Each structure stands twice: as C-alpha cells, then as structure tokens.
Amino acid sequence: MKKAVNLWGLCKLWILHLREAFFISVIGVACVGAFASQSLGQSLAQESSDDCNKETCSAKAHNYEIQGDIERAIALYKKAIELGDLEAYSYLALLYQSQNNTALAKNYFQLGCDNSQYDACFNLGTFFELGRDFIHAQKYYNIACEKGSAKVKANACHNLGVLHSSEVAGLERDYDKALRFYQIACDLDNPKSCGSLGTFYEKGNGGVEQDYARAFELYKFACDSGEARACFNLGTLYDRGYGMKQNFKKAFEVYKIACNAKHAEACNNMGLMYDEGLGVRKSPQKALEFYKVACDLQSLVACNNLGYLYENEPKLKDRQKAYTYYQMACDMKSAKACYNLGYLYDTDEESRDTDKAFKLYDAACGLKDAMACNNLGNLYDKGEGVAQNLEVAKKYYERACELGAELGCVNKDMFEKNHQRIDRRGNNKK
C-alpha cells in the first residue's frame, strides 16, 4: 500500500496546482490510470477495508472515487480532514465540483483556505473567477500568491497578472500591478507569466521601456517550456525583424511549434507564408491547408483569407466557397470579411445584389473598415441598394478618408468640387 500512497502523493500535487483547478489534465488522467493499475493487485480485503490514517485516507478515498463509489470517497475524504490532512479539503471540494455540487465545493474550498491550506485558496479564487466574481477571485488569489508554496504562488500570481491586465467587471486595468505579478510568477519559472511579461517588453507597457532583446529572452524561455502563445510571439519577432534581422525561416519554424499546439493565428501565419512564399516555397495548396486549420480554430483572419484564396487564386477558384468563408469570418466580426463579401455581392455579374452589399458594407464600416465606408458612400451617391442621399454619401467619404482610405479622400475632394467620384475598388486580405 505504501507504494500506491507515494504515487498518489505525486499525482495529487500535479492535479491541484493546475491553472484550471476543476478539471483533471492529461497528466492527472495518467495518474489515475497508474494508480488504478497498482490498485488492481491489492487483495479484496484491502479494497473493502476503510481503515486508514492521516497519510492514507485521501489515497483510499481517491481509489473509491475512480471506481465510482462516491459515497465512500466522500466519507474517507472527511475522515482524512478529521485526522488533520488539510489537502483533503481541496480533494473533497474538487469531488463535489465534479458532481456539480457547487455549494459544497465552495464550502470546502473555503474551509481549506481558512485552515491555511493555500491550494484551497487558489482553487477558491478559480471558483470565483469561473463564476465571473473577479473581486473575490482577486482576494483569494492574493492569499495564495502571498502565502502559497512556490507552485501555488506562481499560478496565483500569474492569474492576478491576467486579471489586472484585462478589463473585467469590478477591476480596473492596471498594467503596473499586472507587471509586478507576472514578474513574481516568472521568477518562479511560470512559463505563461514569462510569456506575458515578454509582451510588456515588446510593447513597452506597464512602465517598462520597449526592449525587444528582453522580450526575445522571455518568449524563448516560455516557448521552450511549451507555451504556444509565446512561440507565436517569438515567431512574430523573427517574422517582422523586431530587434533582430528579419528571418522568415526561423519564424516559420516557431510558428509551426505553436500551430501544432493549436494556436490559431500561428497556423494562419504559416498559411500566409506559403501564400506569399516567405521562408518557404510558395504553395497556394499548402496555404489553403493551414488557413483551414486556423479557420477551424476560430481565426476570423484565416477564414477571411480562405475566402480571398477561393475568390482570387486561379487554381483554387470557387466563388461559392469564397462566399461561405467570407460569411463565416463576417459572422465573427471580421471587418475585412464583411467588406469582401459585400464587394462580391456588389460586383457579381451573374447575381448582383446591392441590398446585401449595402448591409455588409454598413457592417464593415461600423467595424472601421475604411474601404467599406467609401463604398457605402458610393452606394448612397448612386442610389443603389438604398435611396440616393448625397449628404450621407459625403459623410461616408469623409469617414473613409478619416480611417485612412486614400480613395475615400479622393472621392470626398472630387465630390465637393463637382460631384464626381471614383467607383468602388478591391479586396482586403491579411
């Protein structure tokens, strides 16, 4: 029995110190399998006996839990608590959480935290964060960040960094605080925090000076530790030549690591590199493959790029698929996709539909697409898809110009001089 208990002791540390406290990770599942395999060799007498002590009750409770005997598991976790095993508070709370009994889960997380079991404080913070009660989440993350073990401290401080760098209900964005908490967690080798800290140095946020070399170091550490977002960010440094000589091959290699970890924008960028022949041999078919992966991962940019490819690539032309992917991206609030779809309806020789074009240009202009505003002005100017209104047309030309569309500025100037204007133009691709 001693061997099984030691294994469980290792596994429970993995499970409790995860970022999402209520879900058992792949590591946790592997632990369950290993523990169950060891348990098979035990005698029936040992299996049925509920005799245990402070060191063994939680392991035995977990054994019942994975067998589906929830009542016995609960009884033994409670016995472990009575015997002074403070970690059992969290184990019991997690069990109640898995049974959708949130009231008792919260109760036992709270009892554990009140008894200085700082894993429970962290888990209680996660409980409140998942319930979008960010004020209480901050309170319990602060306790775990200040008093927890190194692993708990790192995770709690990281979560505080996330809260303070985001706009969430009840908390103001505070880059200074976010930077401080990310630094604490990164110093404890938390890869997510190191990656987040890297963005501060890349952008020059939180009172730090922009420092691409420092950002590179932090992204590299986090990427080497398996943090997909950091790999993507590292790829963008290589891709754009920030703080170094531009290196498309290196960018592609790092994007590939992130894409394999299902980072949508990394997959999209791989598609772009194949699309444009940057660091790899140009291949519209390969571009299509990676755009599809990224689009399936909900990248609105990739869905728009798929539409563009199907509309414009000679060997892949499929107008219906272009409509489909533009619509998908537009539904995800891609201004470029709404504009491109509107342009298709506006210029389709076989089935032109200016009513739909108007609605899509209107949506894209509302999302600050400059060319959509220009084309919307053009529809008002001509009275196509909408009643002619020259005053409104002028306002949309002005708006297009403000948003950076050179054509909008030209149309505005020509309109003011002699009511002439240039027709609508082009596609948007990223």
Structure description:
- It is a single chain.
- With 430 residues, the protein is an all-alpha fold.
- The protein has helices at residues 2-16, 26-40, 44-48, 57-67, 70-82, 87-98, 102-114, 118-130, 134-147, 150-164, 175-187, 191-203, 212-224, 228-240, 248-260, 264-276, 284-296, 300-312, 319-331, 335-347, 354-366, 370-382, 390-402, 406-418.
- It is elongated and about 90 Å long.
- Residues 1-48 have low confidence and may be disordered.
Topology:
Elements: H1 2-16, H2 26-40, H3 44-48, H4 57-67, H5 70-82, H6 87-98, H7 102-114, H8 118-130, H9 134-147, H10 150-164, H11 175-187, H12 191-203, H13 212-224, H14 228-240, H15 248-260, H16 264-276, H17 284-296, H18 300-312, H19 319-331, H20 335-347, H21 354-366, H22 370-382, H23 390-402, H24 406-418
Helix pairs in contact: 1-2, 4-5, 5-6, 6-7, 7-8, 8-9, 9-10, 10-11, 11-12, 12-13, 13-14, 14-15, 15-16, 16-17, 17-18, 18-19, 19-20, 20-21, 21-22, 22-23, 23-24
